[in-house]
Amino acid sequence: MRLMVCSRESVENYHGHPVSHFVSLIDPGEKDPSIPPPSVEKDLSLAFSDLDDIEVTLPRFKRYQPPEREHIEELVGFGREMSDLSEWGLLLNCEAGISRSPAAAIIILTAAGYRPQTAFGLVRRVQPEMLPNRRMLRLSDEVLDTGGALHRMAEIHRQKAFLRAGYEDPTLVRQREAQLEAQQSWWKRWMRSVARRLRRENRKVPGPK
């Protein structure tokens, strides 16, 4: 078994490696620029943006396509087809090689028969800087019936990574932004209801005789 996870621009560095399975994760509307190594026997390309659950709730991200269950099901199917193989080389890539492609690798390995903890550890070994997309892993927990294990490991790994780095996880900023959006939305709804009530009351007041 050979596992490789990289950025889009690094794919050509693996053209001399024994890669039998190739997965490319791109943004919607983007033409996949990565060329699979010549040894590839089966490949998969999926298009969705690198969004987590918290970002999906924010209006400024509405125009982007988040990972959905159907994307996860394709990755799971890809992994299950690999489960009967005694030998394979899997190369996955995305824009930076730290979010979507590590998450996809974890999903594929779990679908291929590896225990969730083993799959997570194998991917972390080949891509120590990974911050796997948590929405992808939450959805994969549902598809693979892993009881939330993959999402929990991603959360713990992310917390430790930012703690070691010494700066705040951008997700926390997104959460505060979502809370502010919710408060503003509530305030706007309340103001509209007050305005409607005042208009109704004004209509009931008789005019001067």
Automatic annotation (TrEMBL):
InterPro entries membership: Prot-tyrosine_phosphatase-like (IPR029021)
Gene3D superfamilies: Protein tyrosine phosphatase superfamily
Full protein name: Tyrosine specific protein phosphatases domain-containing protein
The organism of origin for this protein: Terrimicrobium sacchariphilum
